[in-house]
Design goal:
Strand order of the largest sheet: 1-3-4-5-6-7-8-9
Number of domains: 3
Largest sheet: 8 strands, antiparallel, barrel
Strand content: 35-45%
CATH class of the largest domain: Alpha Beta
Order of helices and strands: HEEHEEEEEEEEHHEEEEHEEEEEEEEEHE
Shape: elongated
Radius of gyration: 24 Å
CATH architecture of the largest domain: 3-Layer(aba) Sandwich
Number of strands: 24
Length: about 400
Amino acid sequence: MKKLVSLALALVLVLSLTACGSKDGGDSADPNLGKYLGAEFSSDGNEWLSLDEVYDEGESYIELKSGGKGVFCLGGDATDIKWALESDGSLKLTRDSLESNGTLQNGIITLTDLWGNNVTITFVKEGGESSQGGDSGKDAPSGTGLVSEEAVQKGYVWMNEVNNNIFSTTYEEIAEYFGVDGEFDREEYSDHMKRNQRYYKWISKDDSSHFIYVNFAEENPGVFTVSAYNTSGFSGNEAIEKYLDTVKAEAAEANKAAAANAKMKNFSVTVAQFAHDDVAVKIITKIPESGWSYDEGKKCLVENNDPTAFGAGAIRFEVRANVADFDYYKDDFENYQDIDDRVIGGITFHGRTYKRIGYDWIEYVAQIDDGRALSIGLTDIDCVPGTMPDVILSGMTIK
């Protein structure tokens, strides 16, 4: 999971999702029936995050069906639920012996007690209207949002699996990816997040029930970036299984083209071993003038203008006295594989891939001299020849 607010809470919620029974009752004509998409999350009622930034492994939604039945899905983990709505808008969700309480008003579900956890989560009805106010959206760009079924599914894969900077991606960049403006749904003001939000759809022209629903937030005046997204009518997991390799290859080709034309600037940094400033390595290379930055605290080049951007790909540097020191946690590595060695700055680095603490790593390690060893680790980023990570490594000098 790329975005974590409370690991303990996440584990409690995920482990608690198991199937439950059904409940008779309800009216199939009830206007409250439908799918409510995950919007916002707060652990204390003061600081708010987009729900997809917290649980980014899949869809988050509540679906209210007739007969008091429904589905609750958080980060791709779905379970059957029962639901009951009182005349004052009080909403109760139940599964097994657990319950969650909140409200349903003006097309927004607000849960304030999630299966016994003291958090607040909001869900906005798909295609619904909100009475929260805000601009009417009269200046919002809009189009048909119609693309092929393949483009819809590949678009979801790109957003969920390939674009590590999805929550920094603007509406214009999403529209450019799909090749068409999205179908504008509405604009509203979020009291919790203190910002305007716009909602769009990109729809399969082969089946209008298949679409991606994307929320954009106005973080800066006039600039709307992705804050949440969900699929409707098709399985995101099946799309990933079918198109992931293709979308990665297409993204690599786009990255190569961008890298070939990017304006570059000089970059250098001295990285020392923790608590041993005398064991240090100077790294010199070139990075793009825009789109990359350096996180001094984590000692890594970040594929984002904001070095603290959560989930962004990164090239991390670590210095030790001996190359064997980088194997301290090797027993914890999952899916370990040796890969081809790579010459970086005239030094031959041993290559390997593995998974550790939820991250997929490509790591190159080498003994620089008798008292210094260097690890160059790539996380959430590929190093296909000709792409920017490859260009950065190929131009590197090590002193």
